[in-house]
Specification:
By secondary structure, this protein is an all-alpha fold. It has one domain: Up-down Bundle (Amino acid/polyamine transporter I), CATH 1.20.1740.10. It has 18 helices and no strands. The longest helix has 45 residues, at 306-350.
């Protein structure tokens, strides 16, 4: 059953761990590294609560928001929709790697080559969504491959003597800050916010976990249908509501198994992501920081090629660029699928008239719309600028939906399932800690911009 956690891990790698944490380490040394592991662990209570709602009811987390308060759900949908207008930036970030690897089309500018490869990768992944009989298994297989290849490559790169030499100092940086290696620049406040909040899969991306669990058929979601291609001629039923159970001893024993699965699966994503992010930061500290090389502009996924180049020379550089292109481009692929699911889910349940069309119809409608929209927004700025803009909007949503999840656990779920099956005091207490921390971070970020 392990799968959603691996998708979570692989998507997190492509959605920022290759870029923002290495950027901060390459620029400021180990000043902020001690924040990495706590920032990642803050997402554990969110994942557990998001997953618990889907496992116990068979519904998506957005349906839970709608049950809790329709006005709140509408606000979250608006913020979510705005934050994902620019996720084509991940395709263009992958395009920077492919452009640096191929220098094709010959004679084009660096930006032109980047956009060429970005649009080509989008076309390939759009076709994969259209022609796959069932969409989710394809996404899971792609992300498994990306996760395994990334871990293997990073471990091999970290074995180089130049990297091993700085490892003891790097590990000490996990337990306390070092002095800034250069003066702080105010325009890096958003990058630091993004790195902390999106350590792992932050912002509205976290909500994707509910949809992957539902497609995987875990818990009560086993009775829900899956999104199938319109080319297969067969459509599985996507229910309008979740399912309830009586709370017998046998059922509650099953709930215990579901929760243990959820803790383990979430742990695969979170701890796997901590491991790979620490490796990218170690490599950035050893190979980029001494030379003052930063991942930015249209080289946002290019300068890190030195990670592999130290071990395997020119071949290593090409290999890294290929890997970087893969897991940045598949970030667009997986995000396109997940955002289309959320949009279809919201429209299908929030607007009564939308039920005239099937869930699958709405899903593929948004696949097309979002492909067009991100194709338009992608050339408007460098990839990093667009990613940061999306991140700030997503952070505002994180503060809101973290406390909304607490409301679901305490107020809504006990009305739908036996109270003994609901998340307990520890889960709710840790969720409140995460929400408080995110709120404090939002205040600090606002003060930093004054």
């Amino acid at each position: 059953m392990i799968g959603p956690g691996v998708v979570w891990m692989a998507l997190a790698q492509g959605s920022g761990e290759l870029i923002w944490w290495p950027y901060l380490v390459a620029k400021y040394g180990l000043a902020f590294l001690f924040l990495l592991i706590p920032a990642c662990l803050l997402q554990y209570p969110l994942n557990f609560s998001i997953g618990s709602y889907t496992l116990l009811t068979g519904e998506t987390v957005f349906q839970g928001f709608m049950r809790l308060d329709r006005g709140l759900a509408l606000l979250l949908w608006i913020l979510m929709s705005a934050s994902f207008l620019w996720f084509g930036a991940f395709a263009s970030a992958g395009g920077t790697a492919l452009a640096a690897m191929t220098h094709f089309p010959a004679g084009w500018t660096e930006q032109g080559q980047t956009l060429f490869w970005a649009y080509l990768s989008m076309a390939v992944f759009f076709s994969a969504i259209l022609f796959s009989r069932v969409v989710y298994p394809v996404i899971e297989k792609v992300m498994w491959a990306v996760a395994v290849l990334t871990v293997f490559g990073l471990v091999a790169a970290a074995s180089h003597s130049e990297v091993r030499a700085v490892a003891p100092r790097f590990l000490r940086g996990l337990f306390g800050p070092e002095a800034l290696s250069r003066p702080w620049e105010a325009n890096d406040a958003t990058k630091l916010l993004t790195a902390i909040t999106f350590a792992g899969l932050g912002g509205f991306w976290t909500l994707f976990y509910s949809y992957w669990l539902r497609e995987k058929g875990v818990g009560m979601a086993a009775r829900a249908g899956r999104v199938t291609s319109p080319l297969t001629g067969r459509e599985e039923v996507i229910p309008d509501a979740g399912f309830t159970f009586e709370g017998t001893a046998v059922e509650l024993k099953e709930v215990g198994k579901w929760k243990r699965f959820l803790i383990f699966d979430s742990g695969v994503g979170i701890f796997g992501n901590i491991f790979t992010t620490l490796l990218t930061c170690l490599l950035a500290f050893a190979l980029l920081h001494p030379q003052g090389i930063l991942p930015q502009g249209y080289e946002i996924a290019v300068v890190q090629a030195r990670f592999f180049e130290v071990n395997w020379g020119a071949f290593g550089r090409v290999l890294f660029l290929f890997v970087a292109a893969a897991f940045l481009s598949d970030t667009w692929f997986t995000t396109l699928d997940a955002v289309s699911r959320i949009q279809a889910d919201f429209f299908h349940h929030f607007f009564p008239a939308a039920k005239k069309k099937s869930f699958r119809w709405w899903y593929y409608f948004f696949v097309v719309v979002l492909t067009v929209v991100t194709s338009i927004t992608m050339p408007l700025a460098e990839p990093g600028v667009l990613i940061l803009l999306s991140a700030v909007l997503g952070f505002a949503g994180t503060v809101i939906f973290t406390f909304a999840l607490l409301g679901i656990n305490l107020k809504l779920l006990p009305r739908l399932v036996p109270r003994s099956a609901c998340p307990g005091r520890w889960a709710n207490g840790l969720l409140a800690v995460s929400g408080t921390f995110y709120l404090a971070l939002a205040v600090a970020y606002g003060l930093a911009l004054r």
